[in-house]
């Protein structure tokens, strides 16, 4: 066999899983997972800024994301509690329908509040969207991991990230367009429909092939064991505490930077239409390119090298916004910064999510992935909500984004050491068995 033929076959093998039904399901799940984030993230930031709310208050609203980081405390319910009536459809399907309905109701509630008239009610509404969205994510992540076969984790994570971006960017763009014409209330009502793809996917495919029913509970002792069991299993692995430390610190700088981009755009004088074109439009396509590269790279480079490269790219991408802040209002500068950041984020999202998915034990998928995903952003979200506004006012945007790049260095160094010492392999879960 010639080298060219071997190379083509290798590339085809890398691309084939993208068309499989499990990966396509991950795509539709990702759409619904992404939109609640946009509703209390960039979209709410723009809404509050246009309502005249000051920067410190706007950045404090990112604390609503901390609800996502608390989901570990109720994720065990999704693994072990059978819902009445809906439970006949299966554990994952029934929870998917319930969580989706809760998200739609919470987003509709946020649509009805007036931030300028009642900031307290807006805070409560945002937290409710966060709680419902976090529960939806618990179910979506468990469904995705249990549906994908081990060799599909990279491409499946990529398809999920494609969907996530379409859901978040699509909802964000739709909100901006509808808000400019019919107000923010109508915008949020329209975006609530983005919960439907995951609900329909669960109904069509049914229970995931790799889902394992929780063991029967006979009393309080067994119930307590089912709550702490997922965490006990994880922390008994060699190197588990270092893995958790990596999860906690790897994305601090990236999260701190990402949740402040819309403030930068507003202060630089970009209009809603310009934000929709450059941030949402260019960012959307750049992210898709990054996701595609990430899916192929994970298959061909392997987990360790692809993740390490992702960490470096995500750190360096923050410097592009320092350059934009120094340049001022520049459509070309905004396109360049958004393009680079989204390619890096798309690539990183695929390989890092694939790694985190592989860490799960299939007996405790919902609870363990909730622990991992919640830990992945808690430090950055807390820092954004408590210090970002003050740091920007004190340091200026350019120095702030340089600072976020420096914050990413500990995660890069730690993962490099984990790879060299073998801890990446020894801490792997059953979901990652037979990984290339």
Concise account of the structure shown:
This protein is mainly alpha-helical. 78% of the residues lie in helices and 0% in strands.
Our measurement of the CA-to-CA distance between the termini, rounded to an integer number of angstroms, reads 23 Å
Mean pLDDT: 81
Stretches with pLDDT under 50, minimum 5 residues = 1-9
Q: Find the CATH superfamily.
A: MFS general substrate transporter like domains
Backbone shape = globular
How many strand segments? 0
CATH architecture: Up-down Bundle
Count of helical stretches: 22
CATH domain fold name:
Growth Hormone, Chain: A
Oligomeric grouping of the chains: single chain
Give the class-level CATH name. Answer: Mainly Alpha
The figure for the number of domains is 1
Integer-rounded radius of gyration: 21 Å
**Portion in strands:** under 5%
- What characterizes the major β-sheet? none
H/E series, N to C? Answer: HHHHHHHHHHHHHHHHHHHHHH
Q: Helix content range of the residues, please?
A: over 70%
Structural class: mainly alpha
Can you walk through the features of this model?
The chain is mostly helical and 436 residues long. The chain has a single domain, classed as Up-down Bundle (Growth Hormone, Chain: A), CATH 1.20.1250. Helix content is 78%, strand content 0%. It contains 22 helices and no strands. It has helices at 3-15, 21-40, 42-50, 55-60, 66-69, 75-80, 91-112, 119-147, 153-182, 184-191, 196-205, 220-235, 240-249, 252-258, 261-267, 272-301, 303-327, 331-358, 365-395, 397-407, 409-421, 423-426. The longest helix is centred in the last third of the chain and has 31 residues, at 365-395. It is globular.
